[in-house]
Design a protein that fits this description.
This protein has 199 residues and is of the alpha+beta class. It is built from four helices and twelve strands. It is elongated, with a radius of gyration of 17 Å.
C-alpha cells in the first residue's frame, strides 16, 4: 500500500453527531467535513447506525493519523453545534458521537467512506489492486463458500462507491458476483427505495 496508514497503530478517534438520519446524509457530512476540517491523508472516516432510546439515525467517526490533527479537528468541531466526542471529552449532544467513536476505536463496526487509497477505487480494479493500494484488509464474496477467496486478478467494478466495514478489527469489503466473471461491491451507490415503482 502506498498511502500513509498504519493499521497496527492507535489513532485518535472523534465521534460526530450532526443529526443525520440516513447513510447518504452521513456520507455527505463526511465529504463536507473532510474539506471544512482539512482532514489529513490517512484519515479513516466511517458512518454508524445509531439506535438508542433518544436517537435514531446515523453518526460518524473520524480516525485521524496523529494527535495534532485530531486536536485541530476537535477545536473546529467545538465551534459548531454538532455533538462531538474525543476520548473523555464531550461537546453538545454527544451520546451518539461517543457511541460511534467507541465502535470505531474498537474496530467493531463502522462503514468506511474515506480511508487510505479510497480515491484510487474508481472504475474497474482487480482484487489484488484493491487490497494492495488501500487500507482494506480483506474481501469476501456474498454467497460463496466461507473462506474461499476470489482470484486476485478478478476485476471489481467499483461503481465509484466502495464502502468496506470494520469486522473484528479488520476493514472488510463485501462483494457480489457481477456480469462477465467480475465482482462488484455489495452496497450500490443509489439503491432504489423499496416500493419506489408503486403508486
Amino acid at each position: 500500500m502506498t498511502t500513509p496508514y498504519d493499521p497496527s497503530g492507535v489513532h485518535p478517534v472523534i465521534g460526530v453527531d450532526a443529526g443525520t438520519a440516513t447513510l447518504r446524509e452521513a456520507d455527505h457530512l463526511i465529504r463536507d467535513l473532510a474539506i471544512t476540517l482539512g482532514l489529513p491523508p490517512g484519515t479513516v472516516a466511517c458512518t454508524h447506525l445509531i439506535r438508542t432510546e433518544t436517537r435514531r439515525g446515523t453518526a460518524i467517526s473520524l480516525a485521524l493519523p496523529e494527535k495534532g490533527s485530531a486536536e485541530d479537528a476537535w477545536q473546529r468541531l467545538t465551534a459548531t453545534e454538532m455533538g462531538a466526542a474525543l476520548d473523555d471529552r464531550r461537546h453538545g449532544p454527544a451520546e451518539a458521537a461517543a457511541l460511534a467513536a467507541a465502535e470505531h476505536t474498537a474496530r467493531r463496526s463502522g462503514r468506511a467512506v474515506l480511508f487510505p487509497g479510497s480515491d484510487q477505487l474508481t472504475g474497474t480494479v482487480t482484487v489484488a489492486d484493491l487490497l494492495q493500494l488501500t487500507a482494506i484488509d480483506g474481501v469476501f464474496v456474498v454467497g460463496a463458500t466461507w473462506g474461499e477467496a476470489p482470484d486476485p486478478v478478478t476485476p471489481v467494478h467499483t461503481q465509484d462507491h466502495v464502502r468496506p466495514e470494520w469486522r473484528e478489527g479488520q476493514l472488510i469489503l463485501a462483494l457480489v458476483p457481477a456480469a462477465g466473471n467480475a465482482l462488484a461491491p455489495f452496497e450500490v451507490p443509489n439503491p432504489t427505495p423499496c416500493c419506489a415503482d408503486h403508486p
